[in-house]
Amino acid sequence: MSRESEPLLRALNRMRSVILDPSLLVKAVASGKQRGTTPEWRRAEIRYVDLKAGRHLQITTYDATQAFTANHPVGDPSALDDLLDVPFANWIVTTASEQIQIQAKTPTTALVSTTELTAPVEAERGHDQPKERLLPESDPVFRVLGLSDKDGNLKPSRQAKYRQVEEFLRQLDAALSDAMKSGKVRRPTAEEPLRIIDLGAGNGYLTFAAQRYLTEVRELPVVVTGVDVKEQSREHNTKIAAELGVAAEFVAGTIDGVQLTEKPDVVLALHACDTATDDALARAVEWEAPLVLAAPCCHHDIAAQLRKAPTPAPYSMLTRHGILRERFADTLTDALRASLLRLSGYRVDVVQFVESQHTPRNTMLRAIRTGSPVKGGSVKKEYDELVAEWGVRPKLGELLSK
Q1: Which among 88, 95, 295, 334 could bridge 30 via Cys, Cβ 3.0 to 4.6 Å?
Q2: pLDDT band (50, 70, 90) for residue 354
């Protein structure tokens, strides 16, 4: 193995030439962060794949919870160049005969190590890589819920719902791990299990999947409660719980009317329609829930207000066309919800939790309670200015009296 120091830019440029050569590259991996920086991605993986349209450079980037994969035509270096601008601390590039590691020691210098491989490495060009499922399609919970048949095969008509639940579980898993590690969510015990409430439970897909994953895979003591306005949903889900043999309670009632004997640790709301999401977020704040995951649906309230209120200059193009106004209403609604949660003492991330080809309703608000409500400051000022500028009254703001 050889090891030497050299300018970081020169090392990256040499590495770039290797990555851009399909005959050389097996795989490249970037990770870590340079001191004093906050990279957009925590990890990136690069390889070549063979598609129907020919060979492409595949770049997969990872944030705190999920992966994003994009394929780029051979000969187009723009995506790679953008990635090289990210201040990763480490790069490992594997070719058929050697492995090159670049460690950024300062913003301008690097330690470069080159190791000859004892045996040739063959590149894997296949496009579809198997993805480990948190709950496999054959899990009993999906058979009982009707997503899979009696043999454990996913029904074609239920693929979108399965993917939606699977990706929600990934968000729940990552957020719960983060909150427990930081001490924001307590470590559950058999005497004091983790208390989860699903507001707007519907047919219980998320409720049962969360209970199953956390108890059977993560082996956490968990108690779940599902709330839905329909008595039919309560009866259906109670029957499913008995069939699965799980301890789950289901309540028929409104989100703003449900009463709990003990405060929940985790509040979930998957596609509660329109202002029902605001009701769910308001209850979570009222309960001081340490962790909140909400995937909003149907932003009718702000959209209706935008149709009536005059559009401030110079933003008329945002509301002139119906489809753009509806999309802007979605964005404005969730931006205001995120601000209100921050004002209520939460750290908030707004993320995509499932690809748009599976459902257009793919935005998630992920909030961890960090402390007391914010009384003023820039967040409050920006919120007040935004609602005043657009002449809107967010439902969540009314519920929280902000």
Answers
A1: 88
A2: low
Partners of residue 297 on adjacent β-strands = 273
In order, the DSSP letters of 195-238 are EEEEET-TTSHHHHHHHHIIIIIS---EEEEEEES-HHHHHHHH
Which residues make beta-bridge pairs with 69?
A: 60
Stated length of the chain: 402
How far, in whole angstroms, is CA 152 from its chain's centroid? 27
Q: Is the pLDDT of residue 303 over 80?
A: yes
pLDDT at 281: 96
- Short-list 177, 179, 178, 145, CA closest to 162: 145
Q: Edge to edge, what strands does the sheet with 2-7 contain?
A: 2-7, 109-116, 98-104, 90-95, 25-31, 43-51, 54-62, 67-73
* Cβ(333)–Cβ(299) below 8 Å: yes
267 close to 368: Cβ distance less than 8 angstroms: no
How far is it, in rounded angstroms, from Cα 309 to Cα 104?
53
Which residues, in sequence order, are bridge partners of residue 196?
A: 224, 266
What's the rounded Cα separation, in Å, for the pair 399 and 402? 8
pLDDT in tens, 144-167: 999 988 888 888 888 888 888 888
Gap between the Cα atoms of 93 and 105, Å rounded: 18
Give the DSSP H or E segment for 280.
Answer: helix 276-286
How is domain 140-401 classified at the CATH fold level? Answer: Rossmann fold (3.40.50)
DSSP secondary structure code for residue 376 in this structure: S
Are the CB atoms for 28 and 19 separated by under 8 Å? yes
Give yes or no for a contact between 271 and 247, defined as CB atoms under 8 angstroms apart: no
Domain ranges of the chain: 2-116, 140-401
Please give the angle made by the CA atoms of 22, 23 and 26, to the nearest 5 degrees: 70
Estimate the crossing angle of helix 377-390 against helix 322-343, to 10 degrees: 150
- What is the dihedral angle through the alpha carbons of 308, 314, 317, 319, rounded to the nearest 10 degrees? -20
Which residues contact residue 95 at a Cβ distance below 8 angstroms, ignoring those fewer than 6 apart? Answer: 18, 24, 25, 26, 121
Sheet holding 194-199, edge to edge: 248-252, 222-228, 194-199, 266-273, 291-297, 363-369, 346-352
